[in-house]
Every structure is written in structure tokens, then in C-alpha cells.
Amino acid sequence: MKRDFITIDDLGDAALVELMDLADRIRGNLRGHTADLPGHVMGSLFLEPSTRTRLSFETSMQRLGGRVVTSSDPDTSSTVKGETLADTVRIVDSYVDVLVLRHPLSGAARLAARLAKGPVINAGDGSHEHPSQTLCDLYTLRCERGPIAGQTVVLYGDLRFGRTVHSLSRALVRFGATVLAIPDGDLTLPPFVMSDLAERPGYGVREVVIDDMEAIFKRRGVCATLIAPRAMLPAAGAGPATLDLAGRRVSAIYVTRLQKERLAGGSGGGTLPILDHRFLSSPTFNESIVLHPLPRVSEIARELDADPRAAYFRQAALGVPIRMALLLWCCGLVDLPKGPERQSSDGAWVEGRCANPSCITAKEAPEWARLVKGASGTARCDYCEEAASGA
Ligand code: NCD
User: Fold this and answer.
1) 29, CA 20 to 30 Å: which among 282, 293, 297, 362?
2) Which of 40, 54, 63, 102 is labelled catalytic?
3) CB neighbour class for 161 (10 Å; exposed up to 12, middle 13-18, buried from 19)
4) Pocket perturbation via mutation, ligand 1, pick of 44, 48, 51, 53 by most ligand atoms within 8 A of CB
5) Structural domain boundaries enclosing 367
6) Are residues 122 and 153 in the same domain?
7) pLDDT, tens digit (0-9, with 9 covering 90-100), for 269-285
8) CATH number of the domain that 139 lies in?
9) DSSP annotation of 278
């Protein structure tokens, strides 16, 4: 079976741990791997802006001794002439050994994986997932804070359209972390993520009152109300509605920017206080590291850059060893334990259409549309995971 990496659930827990162990070994000798993938060519097809993800994948392939062909400007690719993703993928796949795709529409990577004969890596598909960023995030958490089980991680910002947190929350829950979702205004984690998390065994999703956060807001004179903060706690069943943050050490605050390019008609956002020294002086957060997938716009004060708790530049640097490890697996050079948590296309296909206008099957590939029955029995799109129309 070819080794696609479309969602974080394509790799099971043991595989993720082994991938991080491999990244540890690579990191100790970054320049010593040029004999690993000679003769291999990676196609990087980025139909949406990127700096870190594309350059870290390309650096990774070069450090492994492979070569890279790249199409990084949608305006100079055949997309502007009206070529569909399906056709582009079929062509590039016939040139290369592994394809890394970023696309503005949700579900694009799953479609590409269905069409390509070689492995496909999802480098971000619309507001759906960004699993290789999650590898980098988990790896950073492990390097900086140790084993992920038992950690408390705050997700802070645009949680609806920020695709990185969709992949990350799934992974954190799998490893037994407590996840606290603090959305910017009404930009909460989308239903397809929340319902999935709620179905994970041994977990409970709760709307919570977070006393300490309200206190931080008040102390700063910020007039902000937390809308639907939620905690994903490793204990199912009824539980407290108030999470006593004061009693917990938050190991990391993961900040995301407002995804302005995906906000329809200026809805929501801009309500959370900027992360700065005063924010981190609260007892709950004074030992927290600050993570961000970057690019940062104005969510984190620049004064924090020199603070040792600001881990976002270290996080970006770790993107290379972990992506080198991922490429070694995708290209068949190393094996990882089998047993993905959940295959997205496990369920039986059912009739219907995807209701998400930003899904690849709604926009340009209706003939590929597939719905599957989720664990709760409702139909969802097999590409973007949103609920089906009328479901
Ligand atoms: C993120 C992305 O593209 O989803 N960036 C990244 O890949 N490092 C986050 C963002 O654009 O805000």
C-alpha cells in the first residue's frame, strides 16, 4: 500500500513516537543523510502561499540527497488556464516519487491521493487539516516539555479556519493531553473536529468556565467574553463545568492567526488579548511555552521573541528533521508500526452530496464526491469531513 499522509490519523500513536525518535537521530547529524534518498524526486505543488512548509519540505528532501521540482505560484501554473487539480496531480505524479500538495480547498489532498500512484503528503488543504505541521508541533512539545500524555495545552485564536489546530487537537487527545480550546470570538473548533473528538474513547468534551482566563482579561482591562471555551479532558462522562486553571500548569499555549483569507464577510475574530509578558505573568501561564505555526501577524507581541518561553522559532526549525523522517517513511526507506487510529474511508459509502462550498468535490470534482457514515451514524464527506447536505 502506498504511504500517503493526508490526515494525522494516517499514522497511529506508536508510529508517531517512532517518527519522532527518528527525527531525534536525524537532528543530531543533519548533514549526514545525503545518501538516504539519492535519485528520488519530490514534487512540491503549492497552490496557496507558503514559506515554512514548502521550504522545510524542500530542505528536507535536499538534505536526504533527493531533488525537488516545485510549482509554488498558482498564477504561473496551468491552474490559471483552467486546469483542474485532478489533471495537474495526474501529470506531476507521473514525474516524481513523492508529491507534497498545498491547496486552498478542503479535501484536495485526499482527492490527490486517490489519483496519484505515488505517495501524497498533505501540506494543508483549505481549512481542513495540516498533519505535517502537527508532526512538527508534537515534536516541539516533546523536545521542550517531555512526553505529551498528561500535558495541558491551550489552543488560542482562530480555531475554526486554522487547519493546524484541527490536526493538532486530534493528536493531543490521542496522546492523553488535556486540550483547552479558547476561540477568538465565535471562531470555535468546527463541528467536524468537535464531533470526532467527542467520539474518541476515554475522552469527554465539555464547555467550561475558565475563571483564571476571565481574571486575566479583567486585569488587563480587556472587555472580552470567552465564547464557548471547551476542554477536551481525558475522562468521559459528566465532569466539572469549571476548569480550575489555577491548579494546572499549562505546558503550552498554541496561538493561531486570524485566517482572514477564509473569513466570509468579515465574520468574527479580533477579540482575544495579544500574548505578551503580562499575559504570561499569570501563575497558570508563567511556565508555558508559546507555540505558533507562523506566520505571526499581531497575536504575539514582538517583545516576547527574546523570552525563553517563546518557542515558535525553535518549532519552525524542528520542521526539517521531522519532515526528513516523514519523507523517509513515505518513500519506503523506513517502516513504522502499522495501525492508524482511524482510516477516513473506512465506512461504507452512502448517497448524497457534500454541503461544504469550500470542498474540492463541491468546487471542481463532483464526479469524485463520496460520503461515508461516521461513528455517530450521520453522513459526512470523505474528503473535507463536513456533514452532508440534509444529513
Ligand atoms: C499555517 C498554515 O498554512 O496553515 N502555516 C504553516 O503552514 N506553518 C498557519 C497559517 O497560515 O496561519
Assistant:
1) 293
2) 102
3) buried
4) 53
5) 349-389
6) no
7) 778 889 999 889 888 88
8) 3.40.50.1370
9) H
